[in-house]
């Protein structure tokens, strides 16, 4: 595991006592605050004892099973089934039959007497109890312990709010040109590269180009007492927020400044698949200098994303909605998207943040400019 991770929760044993395992075969899964980590057998052998229980907290280097080394044949060898002793046939004599008893002669049937109908007895009227009013809706409660990832997310988000001087600026972007650009080239790109051209790569590329004029967006603050040093970078590692069943993860597209649209799109697709398949590694999520979050895929119209410390800014994308807008003095219906840039006011002034977001908007509304950048 990474150096930043010192402990985890043992979620599940995939092998039990008596099972034979090969070298590097998975024997358990440990949940950390970032990802699930597989624990593999250091050598071939048979599991003799489980030293911890599921849901226990374990530390790095702590033994979790007792393994008896040995080859598969030896470990798998089971005692041969001994032939069952032959059963001696015991002669059984038939049980003595009971003496026959003569059945009594059938008696003559007696004539059936007609029953006189009985008059119903008067019953005392009972007071009926008032019906119990039915409960409207359920009022049950469930308490579920947070998993490590959820706890870590909560801790990091609260830390961000308590540390950064967060402020959000908004803008809106006309998606017409980018949608037309994608429509024209998506089939060719898919045929030549196998990559489905989307919008995330365009926004990533637009941010990279805008950072050339405003490098503070890609910088961070370091040092004691809240920080006294600004770290500027000549590379851009974009954290892409991906929702999974366990929570939000942010795998990183590294060196995005050296990629074109297709390269960024492929990197995002690969990381997204690994996240959904629960196969992300610590290295996939380490670092990151800027984050892009797309709440629009869930229908979000507008929101204020939270900065992923120690980064300085995060761009929030939202749903594309057709709205009436004024174009050259005329009202037209255009596919519009709201953009939200949350930034750390300790490092970024309002002028820089607004200028950055306007530049991103301009690149998206004329995607041909990104090919010249």
UniProtKB/TrEMBL annotation:
Subcellular location field: Mitochondrion
Molecular function terms, GO-annotated: dihydrolipoyllysine-residue succinyltransferase activity
One Pfam family of this chain: 2-oxoacid_dh
Cofactor list: (R)-lipoate
Biased composition (Basic and acidic residues): 75-129
EC number(s) on file: 2.3.1.61
Keyword Transferase (UniProt): yes
Protein name: dihydrolipoyllysine-residue succinyltransferase
Organism per entry: Talaromyces pinophilus (Penicillium pinophilum)
